[in-house]
Amino acid sequence: MFFPFRSPRPLATLVAALLLTAGCASLPGSAPTSPTGAESKSAESPAPESEQDDEPTVTLTLLHVNDVYQFTPVDFGAHGGLGRLSTLRKQVLAESPHTLFLMAGDTLGPSVESTFHKGKQMIDAWNALGLDFAVLGNHEFDFGPDVLRERIQESRFTWLGANVMDKQTKRTFAETPPFVIRDVGGVKVGIFGVLLGKTKYSSKPGPDVYFTDTCAKARELVPQMRKQGAQIIIGLTHLFVAEDKVLARCAPIDLIIGGHEHVMMQAVSNGTPIIKMSSEARELGRVTLHVGTQSGKLKSMDFDMLPVTPEVPEDPAFASAMREYDAMMADLSQPVGRTQVPLDAMEESNRNRETNLASFVADAYRKATGADAALINGGSIRSDSVLRPGPLTRRDVLAIHPYPGSVVSIEVTGAVLLQALEHGVSRSAEETGPGRFPQVSGIQYAFDVCRPVGDRVVRVTVNGEPLDARRTYSLATNSYMSGGGDGYTMFKGARYRVSPEKGRTTQDVLRDAFASANAISPATSGRIERLRGGAREVAKKDDKDAVACPGTASAAQ
């Protein structure tokens, strides 16, 4: 997802102070860090200032990105593109030959291209670009462990995943090294990679892959890396920032370069800087390390960001290496329809409230099956962008619905339908973007995030009439949900009117809906009403001015 750029400041002075004194601080624009004693550590007494000034240093450069799913530019060409990134990398290498290029996880899926090539196109892109190291991300497992093993074999760079284990071999998955130590400009740089354990449930690693505790793994590996001569320790992670902060307190790590949130952020925990870029290579992170040539100690660190925009030309060598994908890219650009209005495919929107695109998709499902109503999970609306007015292409269809599935119709009672709606909003107060959030057609409902889970839906009508708990309704949905996906277990065993085998694919239904008129112009119609303590919720959940639930401590302040 794309967030407005928050300009970071150079870290040299701050990080030098953190490395030489006790305490903990947050950088401007960072996620907050706790000021408790657990967040701080005492550093060794610094050498006399004159000694520090006299010691020559060697400069090392770390380039880094994370969560890059496409090798072409995004945001209608305004940002990203690995061809541009390749140009920037070569420019940095000309200035600083002691450079490593790191990728902090998530690249094989999901994307439109990966629906055809299962991430191979991204391996080809990173090989052409000259990536050095990558940590496994949760989406690396989207096509299963066997495909990931193939992608790792095709990689000319090194994958890391110290806490990703194989039950059969009792070793790291695909024999990825637990850590690497690279001599860079005479400095031994140690890098280890760890991945969030929730991958077990959020992706498809298979029954033989398991994930060990990241903190325990850091405690095990960092001393080994030091013993083998590592002078600088870098954690390359694909974790939530809260987990990164815990990791920093588990072992003495000089720097954590992370990913996963799709938000550019800077934080410090226990004196360890944590740095992340946003996503899709919209910017290239650059960390400059100044290491004493005699002591081998880190003297200071600077951080900046290089925008990846059309002002950066694409590297011709990269374009040549990716030429085999030109035909596919041209095919994806074929128009299938047109929209007169922006279509909201943003993840945050579709997982929290009614959007014009989700309502359009639900209407299309309902029409395709002739059902009384439709209910789909907001997480099935992908793309995470706003499609601006103009042509709609085959790429747009596949970006919205990248995963295979079919449109089905099942029979449910009103009681089951209410149970499904309750389930759909059961995490709406607890999570910023629950994928289960119910988008609907033929249904109007209101829910209150301040009410208890299971009792949040306060009003439901179906085609203008109050919901009848004893009546049987035909309900259009996708085959993922009808099989119990996203926790909709109440649908399992329901009688099919249109089965997954006979239903048309979600992509075909959406494509035909886009082509159903010279131009579409969907709008929201008030079919979903989100309340907070009985009043219509206006502010976003993460807005600092959001109204608290009545009777809570924050509401009383």
| Helical percentage | 25-40%
Give the low-pLDDT segments: 1-51, 541-546
Number of helices: 18
What oligomeric assembly is this protein in? single chain
SS strand fraction:
25-35%
Number of strands: 28
Across the major sheet, the strand order is 4-3-2-1-13-14
Main sheet attributes: strand count, strand direction, barrel closure:
6 strands, mixed
Instruction: Briefly note the structural class of the backbone.
Output: alpha/beta
What's the shape?
globular
What's the end-to-end separation, in Å?
A: 34 Å
Radius of gyration: 25 Å
Describe the structure.
The strands form seven sheets. Strands 4-3-2-1-13-14 form a six-stranded mixed β-sheet. The protein is globular. A hairpin with a 2-residue loop joins strand 23 (about 455-460) and strand 24 (about 465). The chain is of the alpha/beta class and about 550 residues long. Residues about 1-50 and about 540-545 have low confidence and may be disordered. Helix 3 runs parallel beside helix 5, helix 8 packs across helix 9 and helix 13 packs across helix 17.
Short synopsis of the structure:
This protein has 557 residues and is of the alpha/beta class. The protein has 18 helices and 28 strands.
Keywords:
557 residues; alpha/beta; six-stranded mixed sheet; 18 helices; 28 strands; disordered N terminus
Which helices and strands appear, and what pairs or packs with what?
Layout: H1 12-20, H2 49-54, E1 57-65, H3 82-95, E2 99-103, H4 114-117, H5 120-129, E3 133-135, H6 145-154, E4 158-160, E5 164-166, E6 179-184, E7 187-195, H7 199-202, E8 209-211, H8 214-227, E9 232-238, H9 241-250, E10 255-258, E11 265-269, E12 272-276, E13 283-292, E14 298-307, H10 316-321, H11 326-332, E15 335-339, E16 343-344, H12 347-350, H13 356-369, E17 373-377, E18 386-387, E19 390-393, H14 394-400, E20 407-413, H15 414-424, E21 438-441, E22 443-448, E23 457-462, E24 465-466, E25 472-478, H16 479-482, E26 496-498, H17 506-514, E27 528-532, E28 535-536, H18 553-556
Parallel strand pairs: 1-2, 2-3, 3-4, 7-9, 9-10, 10-12, 17-25, 22-27
Antiparallel strand pairs: 1-13, 5-8, 6-7, 11-12, 13-14, 15-19, 16-18, 17-21, 20-25, 20-26, 22-23, 23-24, 27-28
